[in-house]
Amino acid sequence: MTKVTKTAAQWREELDAETYRVTREHGTERAYSHEGFPKEPGIFTCACCGAALFTQETKYESHCGWPAFYAPKSDAPIGETRDTTHGMVRTEVHCDDCGAHLGHVFDDGPQPTGQRYCINGVSIRFHPSDNTAKA
Question: Could you list the residue ranges that cross the membrane (predicted)?
Answer without folding.
Answer: none
